[in-house]
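Database export, one record per block. Field names are fixed; values are copied verbatim from the stored entry.
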Amino acid sequence: MKLFKGLLSAALIVSMSFAADYVIKFSHVVSPDTPKGKAADYFAKRVEELSHGKIKVEVYPNAQLGGDKAVLRKMKFNAVQMAAPSFSKFTGLVPQLGLFDLPFLFKDENHLHKVLDGKVGQKLRDMVTKKGYVALAYWDNGFKEMTDSKRPLIKPEDCKGLKFRVMSSKVLIEQFKALGAIPVVLPFSEVYSALQQGVVDGQENTISNIYTKKFYEVQRYMTLTNHGYLGYLVVMSKKFWNKLPNDMKKVVLQAMKEATAKERVWAKELNDDQLNKIKEYAKKTGKLEIDTLTQQQRELWVKKLRSIYPKFYNTIGKNLIEEVIKEGE
């Protein structure tokens, strides 16, 4: 009995010696095999390695701890320490994040990442941090493309009269109004059935969303416009962050830097792979026409849709918008 008690005490001492000083609950709403899911797991692994076990990261995928809005509320009280919601979840707090809804703001991926990793990206992170969350990094979903069931969308006027599903965003509503289309606000979960039943004619989304939700199966045309961007903002509870000693903060930031680089590569690879699968479907079935805008055609769209920017100078900020455009010149 004494021997058993001694072994038990030794086991407890060993387990206590390996117990983490800090535990991070990292919540996200997608599956572990997505770029965001893989990056969250990679971040967890690197934090534990770099902190030598002093910080343990528990990742909760598939909204196990609740949806993003519920989790953001929990983070205020440090019941959850990390999350990676889409930008749209923050626009009520920081309207300037509506910047990313502006159509044809970014020339390409390099321009986008230059902005995210530069002064503008830092300004936006600081604005979020002032609202009670520590904004750590931007993770990619991808650029948005357009699909519809009526006709090829080659010129801006091709959208005239078509009903497009949009997220609840003033910018996106104005975007489709400028094209002469009819914006219809619908939850993401209702998009497939709305397209299938003809409640709306078209929609805009990233390749990964178009592929995984099979929107391409209930659409006749797809135009690779790369007109808008969808991304995620990785945030930490301010209460938790303030408890971390400086050396552990450095660990978190280093692991996040590495995870962000990985996530962007995985997001691009996934979008490229899924676009190829959509192209294979189009070729095999003949039920989908895919068009890519030429530079000349793109310029017509840019001219048309940048006309809505002044409507958002007050909410997003004229200087911020102009700073982004200048970065791409």
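Remark 1: Confidence is low (pLDDT under 50) at residues 2-17.
Remark 2: The chain is about 45% helix and 20% strand.
End of record.
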